[in-house]
Design goal:
With 384 residues, the protein is α/β, with parallel strands linked by helices. It folds into two domains: 194 residues, Type I PLP-dependent aspartate aminotransferase-like (Major domain) (Aspartate Aminotransferase, domain 2); 170 residues, Aspartate Aminotransferase, domain 1. The protein is 45% helix and 16% strand. α2 packs across α8, α4 runs parallel beside α5 and α10 packs across α11.
Length: 384
């Protein structure tokens, strides 16, 4: 399956009984054995907690490489990355890059980074969590192995094979390294993740999986077209992120007023109430502490991204009915939030406050601010 996805010269792979984050830990611990003085991991920033925490769990120290904003897109800062490689040398355990990610971040320049890793003799580990379902991501990894060094790449089973969470596939172009990674796992493990994948692949077959990959690519184009239409209706636009083959993003400038992003977060809450759980609403002003590191602009993959936005992804298994339902619910929710944030007349404001109180009060972000609507019926109507 990795071969048909685009990685033609792979030496082998094995199914790890752990999810992507812990499988990355297993790879880093193995790579560290050959570099006893190594204590750093060079990490082009990706705002996913498991990726960052995997470095800490492996007993290594992350060196965060901030992404460059080029147009709408976030791309790898190759100049800063190479400077860190040259300065730290043998004290670098590996470079941890990412292919599949939330827009507006693009895939890391994995092929160029692979060439630098070969030049500086630094291991290169690729977090390919969603990437197996994208032929572009897989071809990028294949091209990276041709141009330079790719020691191992890890992809999730649940995201790429529609099975329950709990497994990952670790692939490598070095058979010896792959054997060492597999032997690094301590003790025994549950066979459930292996059984889930085996049953699914036997059920789908090669033709069925190829069909799913082709369908996902079609759905990406369809979702992008429909989301673009919705964005235009609301005076927004899709961010130009050609380097991301799975995810896309739409601006939410109409909800951001003088650095007040309450309406932006309200939209996220309303979408969640409508069972839209696969999207992210990003304010670009949030901060987050993970272990000892503080990330500014958490969720945006950058500390200074200019505009709040909403992401959507066309993942494996998505159907046209799913995309249509998402667009419909997003349209209704966005319309409601914009109405709530629009200026109101003093009379209307007084009427609303006399019955329901402040629109942003304890009733929660999903409630209607209409004066004649009770709290209970408001919640029911918003879920419909």
């Amino acid at each position: 399956y990795l071969l048909i996805a685009g990685v033609k010269s792979i030496a082998g792979c094995f199914l790890s009984p752990m999810a992507t984050g812990m499988s990355l830990v297993l790879c880093m611990l193995t790579l560290k054995q050959d570099r006893p003085r190594a204590k750093y991991v060079l990490w082009p920033r990706i705002d996913q907690k498991s990726s960052f925490k995997s470095i800490i769990t492996a007993g290594l120290e992350p060196i965060v490489i901030e992404m460059q904003i080029i147009g709408d897109e976030l791309k790898t800062d190759m100049q800063r990355l190479e400077a860190q490689m040259a300065a730290l040398g043998e004290s670098v355990a590996c470079v941890l890059t990412t292919t599949s990610c939330f827009a507006p971040r693009a895939c890391d320049s994995v092929d160029s980074i692979a060439a630098l890793c070969s030049q500086y003799n630094i291991p290169h580990l690729v977090n390919n969590a969603y990437g197996l379902q994208s032929t572009r991501c897989m071809h990028l990894i294949q091209e990276a192995s041709r141009k330079g060094r790719v020691d191992a790449f890890v992809q999730s089973t649940d995201k790429n094979f529609l099975v329950p969470v709990g497994g990952a596939i670790i692939g490598s172009f070095d058979k010896n390294l792959l054997d060492r990674i597999s032997k690094m796992y301590p003790g025994r493990a549950s066979a459930s993740s292996v059984m889930d994948v085996m049953i699914t692949l036997l059920s789908l077959g090669m033709a069925g999986y190829k069909q799913l990959i082709a369908q996902r690519k079609e759905m990406y184009s369809y979702l992008k077209e429909e989301l673009g239409k919705l964005a235009t209706r609301h005076g927004e636009r899709l961010l130009d992120t050609k380097g991301n083959p799975i995810s896309m993003a739409m601006t939410l400038q109409c909800l951001s007023h003088q650095h007040d992003n309450k309406q932006v977060t309200m939209l996220g809450s309303m979408l969640f109430l409508r069972n839209v759980s696969g999207t992210r609403v990003i304010t670009t002003t949030d901060s987050k502490h993970i272990v000892s590191h503080k990330f500014e602009g958490w969720g945006a993959h950058n500390s200074n991204y200019r505009v709040p936005y909403l992401t959507a992804a066309a993942a494996l298994g998505m159907k046209r009915t799913d995309a249509d339902a998402f667009i419909q619910r997003l349209d209704k929710a966005l319309t409601k939030v914009r109405r709530r944030s629009a200026p109101v007349t003093p009379t209307a404001s007084l009427a609303g406050s006399s019955i329901n109180g402040d629109a942003g009060g304890t009733g929660g972000p999903g409630e209607s601010s209409t004066a004649s609507t009770s709290r209970a019926s408001s919640k029911d109507s918003l879920r419909k």
